Amino acid sequence: VNELAEAQVAIVGLGLMGGSLGGALKGKCGQVVGVARRRESIETALERGLIGRGALDLEDGVAEADVVVLATPVRVILKQLAEIGSLVKAGCLVLDLGSTKREVVERMRQLPRGVQPLGGHPMCGKEVGGIEAAEPALYEGCTFVLTPLERTSAEAVALGRELAEAAGGKPVLLEAERHDRLVARASHLPYVLACALMRVVADAGEEDAAVWEVAASGFRDTSRLAASEVTMTLDILLTNREAVLEAVARCEEELGQLGRLLAAGDEAGLRAALTRAREERMGWAGGRREAGGQE
Amino acid sequence: VNELAEAQVAIVGLGLMGGSLGGALKGKCGQVVGVARRRESIETALERGLIGRGALDLEDGVAEADVVVLATPVRVILKQLAEIGSLVKAGCLVLDLGSTKREVVERMRQLPRGVQPLGGHPMCGKEVGGIEAAEPALYEGCTFVLTPLERTSAEAVALGRELAEAAGGKPVLLEAERHDRLVARASHLPYVLACALMRVVADAGEEDAAVWEVAASGFRDTSRLAASEVTMTLDILLTNREAVLEAVARCEEELGQLGRLLAAGDEAGLRAALTRAREERMGWAGGRREAGGQE
């Protein structure tokens, strides 16, 4: 099957990402099968109309699938990739939704020849996880990164693109290592900064609770990512360690530079650095608005 | 005059904060006089009904005022405090809206005896400044810090409270140095982090423009403050230098600690640190929701 409309899509993992994808693909593919370990997740997904059929067993769930989507945390994906090769039909597209891609793609290289592997990373989410938080509109307008392997056929890539678009995303093809290096800066670094900020303010709060009275919208937005689910973020950080450490080190350099300018009272230098950051931020927001995104 | 309803309020500086305050106080005080250097600002404020009368000249604008509100950037406030003492009526309340309070309050100590000084910091704003962005609802629900001096009379503090509440804010009394230390962590540090993050991602973008394709809502929120007006933020950083440097240093420690745990692959330690930050963030957001605030 090379067309989504006829394809049976098995989604392994019915959390926020998997459940939402099921809902987003409803009516756009042959059937959506949801695979989960917890019976309640399947029941909720069925009740909410996010999947057409549920399976507690991986083998049963993926046996007839034309597309298998692994929608579990990265390190669970790595384990599932070791089992799935012998369970799927010849020609099956195996796509994952993990937030880091280098290790996933490395593991995908070991899949049997007949399987079509494709790394994927839809750049959407919420701090709240789980099937309860799932919503079919989650993928609407998001960048959906696809990281094909050399062995991935053009047809399989096309099917992956079709799926990403059917869910409402904008497919962007990137090499896995490049993806990981870029998200380390644009996505994982913001998370680490949010956690560090949260810790610094909470420490202040232990000495003086009035800090909570002065914590306003700036703190709220800058610290938002610290509420992310740790099981997911831990997987991300540990499977993208070098790139994250490099991004943190670069950020420490920038902080050090801003701190030195401030300590020296170098107003002209500080103004130049802050103005540059401001113009870059405004340019980025302007570009997003032009592209129809939200600021 | 000890009651707001009868007071003539002169607002010096018709930018976002001053213009919005004028609109917020409309009908709640005797008259709002707006003082600005640019004729267009006064015209816009009059057209938009944010002030009742405009004055281009400071002396003319504040001569009959019962309350003078300095709504200019911090270092302009410091200059204006040197002039204003001889221009106002005896008993006049001089309140400022500057984002840092220690230097302002120090300068307020030199005001003539008859004047009632009161530091103020409404914790609201937008990245976009200027009278065009002003809106009467800006102060709605915000913490409005007041930092009285020893010499400030109870009546003057009560009038300041009344004004803050009339604008829609929640008055919180804090000592100036304590205020500055707390906002360094909860407000100025997030700004510095946003700027550093923006610079790191923009640098990545110069080598590989695809970083902009993967910059999603996490980056958007964490970097938002980098778009703040530099004239304002420079004033803030330079008048709160020691506390900001201390906050940045504490944050560098936290980043270093998270980095060391990650580099060592210390999963348990990293999980503990990230979980702590998550719980603190969720506790804070929960507390805000209970208090009727927005998350």
In brief:
With 295 residues, chain A is of the alpha/beta class.
Describe this structure in words.
2 copies of one chain form a homodimer. In chain A, helix 6 (154-166) links the parallel strand 7 (143-148) and strand 8. With 295 residues, chain A is an alpha/beta fold. Chain A contains 12 helices and 8 strands. Chain A has an 8-stranded mixed beta sheet with strand order 3-2-1-4-5-6-7-8, with helices on both faces.
Reconstruct the topology from this structure:
Two copies of one chain form a homodimer.
Chain A: E1 8-12, H1 16-25, E2 31-35, H2 39-47, E3 53-55, H3 58-62, E4 67-70, H4 74-84, E5 93-96, H5 102-108, E6 116-122, E7 143-148, H6 154-166, E8 170-173, H7 176-207, H8 211-214, H9 217-223, H10 230-238, H11 241-263, H12 267-290
Parallel strand pairs in A: 1-2, 1-4, 2-3, 4-5, 5-6, 7-8
Antiparallel strand pairs in A: 6-7
Helix pairs in contact in A: 4-5, 7-11
Largest interface comes to:
A-B, 92 and 92 residues
Helix and strand pattern of chain A:
EHEHEHEHEHEEHEHHHHHH
Arithmetic mean of pLDDT of chain A: 95
Report the biggest beta sheet of chain A as strand number plus sense, adding barrel if it closes.
8 strands, mixed
Q: Give the oligomeric state.
A: homodimer
Helix content of chain A: 40-55%
Strand content of chain A: 5-15%
Shape of chain A: elongated
Overall structural class of chain A, as computed from helix and strand content, comes to alpha/beta
Give the beta-strand count of chain A. Answer: 8
Question: How many helices of chain A in DSSP terms?
Answer: 12
Strand line-up in the sheet with most strands of chain A = 3-2-1-4-5-6-7-8
Terminal CA distance of chain A: 39 Å
Low-confidence stretches of chain A: none
